[in-house]
Amino acid sequence: MTRPPKITPKRLALQESGTVNTHAEGVQDSTFVGSEFFDPHDLVQVRYEMLRRVSAEGLSITDAVARFGVTRPTFYKAQSDFARAGLVGLLPAKRGPHGPHKITDEVMRFIEQSRQDDSQLDGPALVERIHQQFGLVVHRRTVERALTPSKKKHR
Asked: Which of 94, 96, 116, 101 lies closest to 146, judged by CA?
């Protein structure tokens, strides 16, 4: 029976930063196999080395995508991101919405004031009041999330 690999401090840091390569098993390049320095779980390192091997050593793109466990579109996206922004371009972009779109500061103040006036107001009642006051159609969960303090710790 084999034990799962020990989670190292580096792996934890990669997970927290969102830069862990979830397809590390696909990295078959000899540079990464058995190396203490080259880590197939480090997404930025894998992408950079893949680009470097093509650019500096003349490795074909076909061979690069096979050795580094990515698709051709992934290679071309990494190449254009690196050309546009350097190493920072290889960092994964945050996916999904980057904040509430309809719950502006003004709407948030309205929600908080409404809750102060009547603490029994629930999500559906607040949704209706927001619609009456601002003409906005928002989902009940959007209002509930806006009222819940963020669980993420900002550094």
From this structure: 101
